[in-house]
C-alpha cells in the first residue's frame, strides 16, 4: 500500500457499512471522499499509517482504535462510534490529541431492548434445548416459565435500560433497578422500584445488564455477586463482555448457583470456538447482534455521517463522550 496514493476525508471501519451504501452516498453527496477498511486493526503498521495519515474523520466499528492509530492521523478532527459503547477507542489519547469521540446515542435502543427479551424468552421457555432435542429425534415437551409476575432486575437505567423496563411492563413483569445516576422521575412514572446493586441481584428472577464498561464496572458480576442471585435466576448481558466474569458465570451455571445466562457480548470477540460459554448447557450465546437490525444500523450510520459532515464543515460535534478534548484544543 503506497501512502502517496491515499487520499480520503473519512475512514470507515464499521463492518456493516460498505462502499456505495446510503451512508457512503450521504458523505460523498456532501463533497467528502471515503475509504472503507473494516479490518484496520489487522493491517501491518505501514498500511495503517498510510490509511490514517490523510484521514480527517473516522466512523468506527468495534475493532480497537489505539493511541498509536490516533497518532498516525494528524489531520483527524472527529471519531464517531456507530454504537453507544466506546471502550474500543482510546478516549484518553483522543482527548490529548484534541479529537472529540462521539457515539450514535439512541440509534440501537429499541433493537437491543428487543434482543434482551429474545434471549430471556429463549432461556425461560428452554427454546435452544427444545430445538436440540427435536433435531436429535427426541420429542420432549419441556416445562418452561412465564415472564408475567416475575421480577426483572435492570442494572443500568439509561436509555436502553429504560426501553427494556417499558417492554417488561407489557409482559406484566415487576421491575426493580439500580443505576448510580438513578432517574427518579422516570422510575416513578413507570412503577420501577429503586434498589442497591446487591439487592437487585438477590430479588430478581431475571437480571439484565445495561452499564458502561469502565474500571468501576469491570468484572462487576463476579462469583461473589452471582452467589447473591436466586438459583433459578437468569442473567442477560447485552452491554459489554468485560462487565461479567465469564469463567465465574460458567462455574455458576454448571453448579446450579444460577439458572442460566444469555450473553451477546464477550471479553474476547470473536468468541473462540472452544470457549466454555459455547459448551455449557444453560448458557446461550449470540454474536454481538443485539443492535444488529436494519433499522438500528441505518439510523446509526446516518447519525455518524451527519456528525462527520457537520464537524468537517466547521460545526459542532454531537453526543461527545470526552468534552475535555476542547481544553486540549485550546
Describe the protein in words.
Belongs to the D-isomer specific 2-hydroxyacid dehydrogenase family. This is D-3-phosphoglycerate dehydrogenase. Residues 117-290 form the D-isomer specific 2-hydroxyacid dehydrogenase NAD-binding domain. Residues 55-322 form the D-isomer specific 2-hydroxyacid dehydrogenase catalytic domain. The structure is a single chain. The protein has 13 helices and twelve strands. With 330 residues, it is of the alpha/beta class. The protein folds into two domains: 3-106 and 294-329, NAD(P)-binding Rossmann-like Domain (Rossmann fold, 3-Layer(aba) Sandwich); 109-285, NAD(P)-binding Rossmann-like Domain (Rossmann fold). It has a seven-stranded parallel beta sheet with strand order 8-7-6-9-10-11-12, sandwiched between helices. Strand 10, helix 11 and strand 11 form a beta-alpha-beta unit. It is globular and about 60 Å long. It starts with 9 loop residues before the first strand and ends with a helix.
Helix percentage range: 25-40%
Please identify the top-level CATH class of the largest domain.
Answer: Alpha Beta
* N- and C-termini, Cα separation: 35 Å
Neighbour order of strands in the largest sheet: 8-7-6-9-10-11-12
Number of helices: 13
**Domain unit count:** 2
> How much of the residues is beta strand, in percent?
5-15%
Q: How many strand elements? A: 12
Question: CATH topology of the largest domain, which one?
Answer: Rossmann fold
CATH architecture of the largest domain: 3-Layer(aba) Sandwich
What summary fits the major beta sheet? 7 strands, parallel
Shape type: globular
Rg: 21 Å
EC number: 1.1.1.95
Family: Belongs to the D-isomer specific 2-hydroxyacid dehydrogenase family.
Organism: Microbacterium esteraromaticum
InterPro entries: D-2-hydroxyacid_DH, D-isomer_2_OHA_DH_cat_dom, D-isomer_DH_CS, D-isomer_DH_CS1, D-isomer_DH_NAD-bd, NAD(P)-bd_dom_sf
Amino acid at each position: 500500500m503506497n501512502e502517496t496514493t491515499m487520499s480520503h476525508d473519512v475512514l470507515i471501519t464499521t463492518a456493516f457499512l460498505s462502499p456505495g451504501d446510503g451512508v457512503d452516498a450521504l458523505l460523498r453527496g456532501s463533497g467528502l471522499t471515503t475509504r472503507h477498511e473494516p479490518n484496520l486493526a489487522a493491517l501491518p503498521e505501514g498500511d495503517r499509517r498510510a490509511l490514517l495519515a490523510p484521514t480527517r474523520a473516522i466512523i468506527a466499528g468495534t475493532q480497537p482504535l489505539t493511541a498509536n492509530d490516533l497518532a498516525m492521523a494528524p489531520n483527524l478532527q472527529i471519531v464517531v462510534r456507530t454504537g453507544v459503547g466506546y471502550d474500543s477507542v482510546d478516549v484518553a489519547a483522543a482527548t490529548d490529541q484534541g479529537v472529540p469521540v462521539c457515539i450514535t446515542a439512541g440509534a440501537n435502543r429499541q433493537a437491543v431492548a428487543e434482543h434482551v427479551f429474545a434471549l430471556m424468552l429463549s432461556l425461560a421457555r428452554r427454546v435452544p434445548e427444545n430445538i436440540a432435542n427435536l433435531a436429535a429425534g427426541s420429542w420432549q415437551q419441556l416445562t418452561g416459565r412465564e415472564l408475567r409476575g416475575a421480577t426483572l432486575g435492570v442494572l443500568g437505567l439509561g436509555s436502553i435500560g429504560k426501553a427494556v423496563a417499558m417492554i417488561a411492563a407489557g409482559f406484566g413483569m415487576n421491575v426493580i433497578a439500580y443505576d448510580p445516576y438513578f432517574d427518579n422521575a422516570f422510575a416513578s412514572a413507570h412503577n420501577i422500584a429503586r434498589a442497591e446493586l446487591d439487592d437487585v441481584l438477590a430479588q430478581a428472577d431475571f437480571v439484565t445488564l445495561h452499564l458502561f464498561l469502565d474500571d468501576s464496572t469491570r468484572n462487576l458480576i463476579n462469583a461473589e455477586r452471582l452467589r447473591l442471585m436466586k438459583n433459578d435466576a437468569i442473567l442477560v448481558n447485552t452491554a459489554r463482555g468485560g462487565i461479567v466474569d465469564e469463567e465465574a458465570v460458567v462455574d455458576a451455571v454448571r453448579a446450579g448457583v444460577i439458572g442460566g445466562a444469555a450473553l451477546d457480548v464477550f471479553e474476547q470477540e470473536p468468541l473462540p470456538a472452544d470457549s466454555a460459554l459455547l459448551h455449557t448447557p444453560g448458557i446461550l450465546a449470540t454474536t454481538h447482534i443485539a443492535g444488529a437490525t436494519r433499522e438500528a444500523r441505518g439510523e446509526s450510520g446516518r447519525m455518524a455521517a451527519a456528525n462527520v459532515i457537520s464537524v468537517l464543515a466547521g460545526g459542532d460535534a454531537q453526543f461527545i463522550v470526552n468534552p475535555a478534548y476542547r481544553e486540549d484544543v485550546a
